[in-house]
C-alpha cells in the first residue's frame, strides 16, 4: 500500500493586529442571485444606519424588480478603521436587471464624539479642492452625462492607506450603463484634519502538520461556501476534534474581518479556496471585472495566511468556458448538496448528504449561517462508520490523478 504525504509546509505568516471588528452579516440566496454582506460594528447608531440602508435597498429591489428575469442584487462593503476612534464604512450596491445600476453609500463615524463625520470634518479647504476635483472629473469621464457635476455633495467618500476616494453618481455613461463616478485623491496631497493610522503588520511563523493518506482509501471532501463568518470557528473546532478537514471557499471581502479564523483554518490543516471577492453573478462580469473579483481575494488570503488559493468555486455554481480561460485556478463544483441554508434542520441536512455520498464525493455546505455546524458532527460520524477518510479538495484531486495513472 502506497503512502502519500500530502501536506508538509512551513511558511511565513503575516498577522494583522489592532482592530475591534465585530462580525459580518451575510445573506446569500443561492436560488435568487442575491448576495448581501455588511459589517456589524457593535456601535449602535452606526449599525442602525447601516441596516436601515440595507433593508431599504433590499425592499426596493424586491418591489421594483419582481417581474424581471433573474434580477441580481449584490451589496458588498469596505471597512476601514482610520484611527482608534474613526471608522469608515461603504456599502456598494449593484443591481443587474435590464441594465446595470451601481450605487454607493458611505458612513464615517467618530466613536469619541459619537457623531457621523462629513468631508468638511476630514479635509481642510474643501472649497479650494472643489474646483480641482471638478476639473479632474471632467477629464476622467469625458463620455459621461455631465449633469453629475452639479450633483457633487461630497457626502460619499472612502479612505484607504493611500487615497481619499470621492464618489459622485451614479451617472449615465455613453453605453447607457449606469456607473459610479469616482476620483482618487492621494492622501499626501491633502491637508487632513484627522490622523490616519496605516495598517500595522507583524511577522509570525506557521507550521502545518503532515497528513498520511492511502490513495486507495475511500475519500470524501467537505466544502464550505460563503464564509468566513462567526459560525466558521465552531465548524473548525468540530473538524479538528474529529480529525477531519474541510475546504473553505471564502468570499474575499470578509476575510479581513475574520483573519484569525483564516489562520486557524490553515493551522488545522484545512484548505482555503477562492469564492470571488463580493459574490457577484460571474456570467454578467466583463473579463477585467471577473479577474478583479478573483485577484482581490487571492491577495487578501495570501496577505493573511501566506497561502495563495489554487481552487475557485464559482458563485451560484454558474460559469462558462469563457470565464475559465481567464484564470489558472481550478474550478471546483460539488456532487452532493446539503442545501443547509434552505432546509435549516439537522435531520434534513443529514438526509440530503449521507445517501448521496460515494468515494471521491465533494459535499457542499455553507458556513455563513448556523445550520452547517448543527449537522456536521453527525455527518462526519456517519461517514467514518462507512469507512471514509476526509481530505481537502486539492488532496482529493491529487488522489484521483494518482488513481487514473494506475
Ligand atoms: Zn456562494
Fold blueprint:
Elements: E1 3-5, E2 10-16, E3 23-29, E4 34-40, H1 44-64, E5 72-81, E6 86-96, E7 100-110, E8 115-116, H2 119-122, H3 126-140, E9 157-159, E10 163-172, E11 178-186, E12 201-207, E13 212-214, E14 218-225, H4 232-241, E15 246-250, H5 259-267, E16 271-274, H6 287-305, E17 311-312, H7 321-324, E18 330-331, E19 336-337, H8 340-343, H9 346-353, E20 361-366, H10 371-385, E21 388-390, H11 393-405
Parallel strand pairs: 4-5, 14-15, 14-20, 14-21, 15-16, 17-18, 19-20
Antiparallel strand pairs: 1-13, 2-12, 3-4, 5-6, 6-7, 7-8, 9-10, 10-11
Helix pairs in contact: 4-10, 9-10
Structure, explained:
There is one protein chain. With 406 residues, the chain is α/β, with parallel strands linked by helices. It has two domains: 207 residues, Glycoside hydrolase/deacetylase (TIM Barrel), CATH 3.20.20; 167 residues, Fervidobacterium nodosum Rt17-B1 like (Heat Shock Protein 90). 30% of the residues lie in helices and 30% in strands. The strands form six sheets. It has a six-stranded mixed sheet with strand order 3-4-5-6-7-8, covered by helices on one side. Strands 14, 15, 16, 19, 20 and 21 form a six-stranded parallel sheet that branches. It starts with a strand and ends with a helix. Bound molecules: zinc ion. Zinc ion binds next to loops.
- Look at the structure and give the mean pLDDT: 87
What fold name goes in the CATH topology slot of the largest domain?
A: TIM Barrel
| Total separate domains | 2
Strand percentage, roughly? 25-35%
Low-confidence stretches: 5-19, 200-210
What ligands can be seen in this structure? zinc ion
CATH superfamily of the largest domain: Glycoside hydrolase/deacetylase
Q: What portion of residues is helical?
A: 25-40%
State the total count of DSSP E strands: 21
- Briefly, what CATH class of the largest domain? Alpha Beta
Major β-sheet profile? 6 strands, mixed
Amino acid at each position: 500500500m502506497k503512502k502519500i504525504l500530502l501536506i508538509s509546509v512551513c511558511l511565513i505568516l503575516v498577522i494583522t493586529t489592532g482592530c475591534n471588528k465585530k462580525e459580518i452579516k451575510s445573506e446569500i440566496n443561492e436560488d435568487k442571485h442575491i448576495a448581501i454582506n455588511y459589517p456589524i460594528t457593535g456601535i449602535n447608531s452606526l449599525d442602525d444606519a447601516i441596516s436601515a440602508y440595507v433593508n431599504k435597498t433590499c425592499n426596493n429591489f424586491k418591489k421594483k424588480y419582481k417581474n424581471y428575469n433573474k434580477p441580481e442584487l449584490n451589496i458588498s462593503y469596505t471597512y476601514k478603521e482610520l484611527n482608534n476612534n474613526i471608522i469608515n464604512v461603504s456599502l456598494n450596491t449593484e443591481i443587474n436587471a435590464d441594465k446595470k445600476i451601481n450605487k454607493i453609500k458611505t458612513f464615517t463615524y467618530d466613536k469619541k464624539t459619537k457623531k457621523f463625520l462629513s468631508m468638511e470634518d476630514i479635509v481642510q479647504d474643501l472649497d479650494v479642492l472643489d474646483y480641482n476635483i471638478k476639473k479632474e472629473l471632467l477629464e476622467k469621464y469625458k463620455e459621461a452625462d455631465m449633469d453629475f457635476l452639479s450633483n457633487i455633495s461630497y457626502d460619499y467618500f472612502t479612505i484607504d492607506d493611500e487615497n481619499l476616494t470621492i464618489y459622485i453618481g451614479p451617472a449615465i455613461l455613453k453605453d447607457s450603463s449606469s456607473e459610479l463616478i469616482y476620483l482618487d485623491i492621494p492622501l499626501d496631497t491633502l491637508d487632513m484634519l484627522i490622523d490616519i493610522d496605516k495598517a500595522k503588520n507583524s511577522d509570525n511563523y506557521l507550521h502545518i502538520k503532515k497528513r498520511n493518506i492511502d490513495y486507495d482509501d475511500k475519500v470524501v471532501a467537505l466544502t464550505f461556501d460563503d464564509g468566513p463568518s462567526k459560525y466558521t470557528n465552531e465548524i473548525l473546532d468540530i473538524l479538528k476534534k474529529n480529525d477531519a478537514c474541510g475546504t473553505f471557499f471564502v468570499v474575499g471581502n470578509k476575510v479581513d474581518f475574520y483573519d484569525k479564523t483564516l489562520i486557524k483554518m490553515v493551522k488545522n490543516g484545512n484548505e482555503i479556496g477562492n469564492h470571488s471577492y463580493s459574490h457577484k453573478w460571474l456570467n454578467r462580469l466583463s473579463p477585467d471585472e471577473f479577474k478583479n473579483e478573483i485577484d482581490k481575494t487571492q491577495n487578501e488570503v495570501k496577505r493573511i495566511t501566506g497561502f495563495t488559493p489554487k481552487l475557485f468555486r464559482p458563485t451560484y455554481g454558474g460559469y462558462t468556458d469563457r470565464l475559465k480561460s481567464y484564470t489558472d485556478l481550478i474550478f471546483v463544483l460539488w456532487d452532493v448538496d446539503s442545501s443547509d441554508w434552505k432546509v435549516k434542520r439537522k435531520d434534513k441536512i443529514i438526509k440530503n448528504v449521507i445517501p448521496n455520498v460515494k468515494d471521491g464525493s465533494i459535499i457542499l455546505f455553507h458556513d455563513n449561517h448556523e445550520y452547517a455546524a448543527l449537522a456536521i458532527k453527525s455527518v462526519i460520524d456517519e461517514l467514518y462508520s462507512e469507512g471514509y477518510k476526509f481530505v481537502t479538495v486539492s488532496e482529493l484531486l491529487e488522489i484521483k490523478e494518482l488513481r487514473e495513472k494506475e
